[in-house]
Write a structure and sequence with these properties.
249 residues; alpha/beta; four-stranded antiparallel beta sheet
Length: 249
C-alpha cells in the first residue's frame, strides 16, 4: 500500500483537449508530474501554454472537451478552482492587480486562510512573512510585483504552476523570483510546473523535465538539457515537427 502511494503521480493529465470560446486550443495532452519534480513547459507565443495552466487550475472559461485531470489521485476534471486550491494547487498570474484599500499582506493572509481552512493569527503570519522576505532579500517597501513569489513561499502548495512569472520583470526582480523558486524547491514534496517562453529564471534552477508545446500539441520532451538546446536553436525544429504531424493527421 505504501509503495503504491509513493508511485502515484501528484498530477496526471490524460489525453486532455480544451476549447476556448468554441475554438480548439489543446489537443490530446498527456503530462505526469511527481512530487518534488520541477517541470518546464516551453513553446512559442500562442502555443497554448497559458491555456494549459488555466485549465489545470479550473478556470471556467476553458472547457475540457476530452480527457481527465487527476491531482493527488483524485479526479478534479470537473472541480472548481477553489477546490483545487484547497487540495494544494497554485497558479501564479502574470500581472497581479492591486486592489484599492487592501494591503498586500492582508491579501496573502486571506489566501493562506482559504488554503488551510483555518484563521491565521496576525502574529504568526507576520513572522512567516518576515522570514520569507528575508529569504528573498526584499525591501519592506515591496509592492504587488512581488506578490506571486511571496504567495508561493507562504502558501507552500503541493503543485505550483508559474505562468510567465518573469514576464516584464527587470534583472533584480528576476533574481528575486529565482531565489524564491530555489527556496520552494528545498521542499522535497512540492512540485513545480514553470510555463515560459524565456529561460531567464531557469538559469540557476534544477529542471527534471522539459516539455515543448506547439499549436496545442506536446511535440517534444526531455530533461533540463532541452532548455539549453532551445536557447541555442530556438523552436523552429519543433514547429516543423508539429506541422508535419498535422499534415500526416
Amino acid at each position: 500500500m505504501e509503495e503504491s502511494d509513493m508511485s502515484e503521480p501528484l498530477l496526471n493529465v490524460k489525453n486532455l483537449s480544451v476549447n476556448v470560446e468554441e475554438k480548439s486550443i489543446l489537443h490530446g495532452i498527456n503530462l505526469t508530474i511527481n512530487k518534488g519534480e520541477t517541470h518546464v513547459l516551453m513553446g512559442p507565443n500562442g502555443a497554448g501554454k497559458s491555456t494549459l495552466g488555466c485549465t489545470l487550475m479550473g478556470n471556467p472559461n476553458y472547457h475540457v472537451t476530452d480527457g481527465e485531470i487527476f491531482f493527488g489521485g483524485e479526479n478534479i476534471t470537473k472541480e472548481a478552482a477553489d477546490k483545487r486550491a484547497k487540495l494544494g494547487m497554485f497558479l501564479s498570474f502574470q500581472n497581479p492587480l492591486e486592489v484599492p484599500g487592501i494591503s498586500l499582506s492582508n491579501f496573502i493572509r486571506s489566501a493562506l486562510s482559504a488554503r488551510t481552512g483555518k484563521n491565521v493569527r496576525i502574529w504568526d503570519f507576520n513572522k512567516e512573512l518576515q522570514k520569507a522576505m528575508e529569504v528573498l532579500d526584499m525591501d519592506p517597501s515591496y509592492g504587488f510585483r512581488d506578490l506571486k513569489i511571496l504567495q508561493l513561499l507562504l502558501l507552500n502548495p503541493s503543485l505550483a504552476i508559474l505562468d510567465e512569472t518573469d514576464s516584464g520583470l527587470d534583472v533584480d526582480a528576476v533574481r528575486t523570483v529565482s531565489k524564491g523558486i530555489e527556496e520552494y524547491q528545498k521542499s522535497k514534496d512540492g512540485a513545480l510546473l514553470i510555463i515560459t517562453h524565456s529561460t531567464r529564471i531557469l538559469e540557476s534552477l534544477h529542471v527534471d523535465k522539459t516539455h515543448v508545446l506547439v499549436d496545442g500539441h506536446l511535440v517534444a520532451e526531455g530533461d533540463g538539457s532541452l532548455v539549453d538546446e532551445i536557447n541555442e536553436h530556438g523552436f523552429e525544429q519543433f514547429i516543423v515537427s508539429a506541422n508535419e504531424k498535422g499534415e500526416n493527421n
